[in-house]
Amino acid sequence: MLLHRSRNRPGESWSVASTVGAMYLPEPTPLLSAEEERQLARAIEAGVLAEHLLVSGDRPHQATTEELHAVVRAGELAFQRFLLANVRLVGKLAGREARITGLPGDELFQEGFVAMAGALQRFDPDRGRFSTFATLRIRQHLSEVAAGRFGE
């Protein structure tokens, strides 16, 4: 956890940059290897496809509704695991932006987490690592949030 002097809360001398992440994660989630990223990304894609098949009613394969629901659930769990494994990245970037701008770290963390979820939806595991892909999107989003707050 990263501590820094708070510039935005009078009366408080210290705040935690990754407050939200610390509150919801009882223990650190291990980082993902490149192979684990590819496997989880494939499970997410399969879950999205299975959900589409359930909604549209198309059944190109002899899959049952229960099997499709199981694939959707596996995709949701993979999405969740992927996000939790990268919470530290968001905490680091949000803390950095909080120190630079003086905005509340917990709000920036939430915005960064939303940006990370959006990046995961567009992530292609065949083109590289997620952290490299997501860092650019999270930083850009946090900068836009900060600019919007300061009216730039």
Distance between the termini: 30 Å
- Poorly predicted segments: 1-21
Gross morphology is: elongated
* Percent of sequence in beta strands: under 5%
Radius of gyration from CA coordinates = 18 Å
Q: Write down how many β-strands occur, each being a DSSP E stretch of 2 or more residues.
A: 2
Question: Layout of helices and strands, plus pairs?
Answer:
Layout: E1 3-5, E2 14-16, H1 19-24, H2 34-56, H3 65-85, H4 87-101, H5 105-122, H6 130-150
Antiparallel strand pairs: 1-2
Structure in a nutshell:
This protein is mainly alpha-helical and 152 residues long.
Question: What would the keywords be for this entry?
Answer:
2 strands, disordered N terminus, 4% strand, 152 residues, mainly alpha, 6 helices, two-stranded antiparallel ribbon, single chain
Task: Provide an overview of this structure.
The chain is mainly alpha-helical. 68% of the residues lie in helices and 4% in strands. The chain is built from 6 helices and 2 strands, in the order E-E-H-H-H-H-H-H. Strands 1-2 form a two-stranded antiparallel ribbon. The two termini are 30 Å apart. The model is unreliable at 1-21 (pLDDT under 50).
